Amino acid sequence: MRTPRFVGVTLIAGLVLSATAACGGDDGVEDTASADLKGVTLEVAGPWSAGGGEQANFQKVLDGFAAKTGAKVNFTSNGDTLITVLSSKIPGGGQPDVAMMPNQGAINDFAKKGWLKPLSADAQKATGDNFAAIWKTLGTVDGTQYAVYFKAANKSTVWYRPKAFEDAGVQPPATWADWVKGAQTIADSGVAPLSIAGADGWTLTDWFENVYLSQAGPENYDKLAKHEIPWTDDTVKAALKTLAELWGKKEFINGGQQGALATDFPTSVVNAFKDPAKAAMVYEGDFVSGVIGENTDAKVGTDALFFPFPAVGSASPVVSGGDAAVILKDSEGAQELVEYLASPEAAELWAANGGMVSPNKNLDLGVYPDDIQRSIAKSVIDAGDNVRFDMSDLAPASFGGTKGAGEWKILQDFLKNPADVDGAAEALEKAAAKAYE
Amino acid sequence: MGTPVIPGAPARPAAHRGRAALTRAGFLIPALVLLGLLVVYPIGYTAWRSLFDADGTSFVGLDNYAEMFTDGATYTALRNNVVWVVVAPSVITVLGLVFAVLTERVRWGTAFKTIMFMPMAISFLAAGVIFTLVYDHAPEKGVLNAVATGVHDTWEAPSPYPGARPRENGPLKASGGGAVAPGKAGEAALLPLVAVSPETQKELRDAAPAAPEPGALTGTVWVDFAPGGAGETGRIDPGEKGMKDVRVEAVVGGKVIASATTGPDGTFRLAGVSGDAEIRLPAENFAPRYGGVDWLGPGLVTPSIIGAYVWMWAGFAMVLIGAGLAAIDRDVLEAARTDGASEFQVFRKITVPMLAPVLIVVVVTLVINVMKIFDLVYVLAPGPVQQDASVLALQMYVRSFGGSDSDQGLGSAIAIVLFLLVLPAMVFNIRRFRRENT
């Protein structure tokens, strides 16, 4: 414990030094970002609250900007209500200058309403230099770039209990076939291999997206996300059939399918990692590690490890989400702040403290405080342009984001009865057709 | 609530009328302004807002109302509201009546009344949190399921190996929850099972092969899964555990001819068997553990929440009815008793009719309260079944403020319908008050 923290501190110290050095150095390259913004005050809103230390970490990033430019930056946390708050503030003109948007669907929505300001050429260039092209595309709506992704979530991680793997004598699988085989062995050893949060429909959509992205490929994934191919397409049915290999066996799931449907996401994590553990693995994004830390005594890194979502097709999928900076007001300094957030130095200020994966490819992976976070980040960076955004977040909320309706509900029904692939595909298509019209 | 009522003033001399009207207005205006601002305007605006779409920009007429009645979720909420309105007030009133009548007759009535009334001092939110613990599915947390599993396991002992099943490709085949394998007298059978949890295995001893014995069927039931996955299928490898206390039966022609229970090393001996017999491990060995009742599952969630509500409000009904009871003329009761009426007859034919006005007040008050129920449902119903438990007030909140596709037009429409539903009860109450006052 002591060593990494020491390393972190040195890193930050080094960083501050290098930042100052950059500031004093050649001004020609970083013209706007190091502009003198003394006397300028910027308001930033975001979803990060003080609870998990996220707010403090982001504040450090903003302080870095302040130190560099002399501007004063105030951060307001709006938690889960950010979108709602912004939606009511913007029409009244009381919005902050910059917002960190947690949801791609909302970015599209805001852009179409004309609430977002296009990014400056410098900010666009910074995005192009520091990120794989896919991230720039994600921040672009109808040909105009509005957003810079600052923090990424890796939703292609399967978390497991090494003790359970050891007891059963299995290794973390790299392919879907190995995963199914390993699950059988773990089930034979007397432990339910999987804990599935069937009560929270969004975890099921994430399951599907990973399988689909890996099996059908990124091109089909994009088409399906835009509903250019129907959900009755053979690729969808194939993905559902694949899913059923794990979802279809009662002994693979803690509590069986019925039990899974009564399990919410935090409980699914607790079931796998809190003594006495009832399951060996739980699939969800990198934020599982936070849930483990909060609700169990298990230590991430020793009692809880992860492996990348096994490859169904040729490569492991990387399904991602993230928080992106957008400009809500054309105030002085706003463009510079967003450009700064696209830089590796801004990402480093938070990444070094842990709790953040940066999609910035020029960020040195060495800054992450532990191996777990480093490898989570590495798989996002390595996937390059094959990273895909969470499909259900891109879909209309009535299809991809509503409790008890659309994709959530249909995949829950599918989990209840994994034999009915055609029925599920038809139901999905019917719901999608209604939502996308 | 509603529009303030100015009682018809009796006629006065003309000279006074002007001044009196002014004074009256002076007293009324502050109240009118407040009521207008805080009651009339919001109601009016909600009605107006309900005619617009989610953005509040385009006029959609009655579309929101149409959507509301075709939307499955709102229909569920409406149906649940009906259940609430029918069940909760009647149960509470009946319980309150019973408690009030009974507490009149016992010495520690006051103590009982105090305890019964106490839940009224707890907020809905706190009561909701308390009852999430009461109704928790896990028997180690939820008191009701602790009782349910306790009672169940007393009558029916839990199976020793819940979830265990035959080793695939082994001699044992799953059959009706149990397992069967062919057997022959004079031979030792090997019956491999898997999926016994590591915790259970810790308490087991190493398995041993059984000695063949003429005239008997012998064999071993064991966990064919050594820690670490080593070992060969269908063979007793070192470290593999024998399963004790498993019931084994020998079946010939569908009839059980011998039965035994395995010893600590997993071996068993079925005496008096000759020739071929089917070895059966009945389902009772592997039955999944009884998990109690799913109180907050989709089927029971509304009755469960109503139960919590009854717990809170029974005391209120009891106190009101008790007060009514105290006001009843005892002479009538005594007269009836003297005439030979039984206690039950007195209760039914005299007490209840005389209490009718109080009972109506209690029921109407409860109906109004129950229609607006929100907090308990919001706190008690777990996320996935929230929609199954939903009521109109909750639906209104969820539709108006619940996340990315919130629609305050639709929310307003639900609010208006809820208002219209509560209105008759309100009017009834106000009328009654006025009748009583005149």
Automatic annotation (TrEMBL), chain A:
Signal peptide: 1-21
Gene3D superfamilies referenced in this protein's UniProt entry, alphabetically: Periplasmic binding protein-like II
Entry-linked InterPro entries: Bact_solute-bd_prot1, SBP
Record keywords, A-Z: Signal, Transport
Presence of keyword Transport: yes
Protein family (similarity comment): Belongs to the bacterial solute-binding protein 1 family.
Name the record gives this protein: ABC transporter substrate-binding protein
Species for this entry: Actinocorallia libanotica
TrEMBL record, chain B:
Domain of life according to the entry: Bacteria
UniProt entry keywords in alphabetical sequence: Cell membrane, Membrane, Transmembrane, Transmembrane helix, Transport
Domain ABC transmembrane type-1 as annotated: residue spans: 78-429
Keyword Cell membrane (UniProt): yes
TM annotation in the entry: 21-43, 82-102, 114-135, 308-329, 350-374, 410-430
Keyword match Nuclease: no
Membrane topology: Multi-pass membrane protein
Family label: Belongs to the binding-protein-dependent transport system permease family.
Any one Pfam family match given in the protein's UniProt record, by short name: BPD_transp_1
Compartments, as annotated in UniProt: Cell membrane
Protein known as: Sugar ABC transporter permease
CDD domains (UniProt xref): TM_PBP2 (cd06261)
Upper lineage: Bacteria, Bacillati, Actinomycetota, Actinomycetes, Streptosporangiales
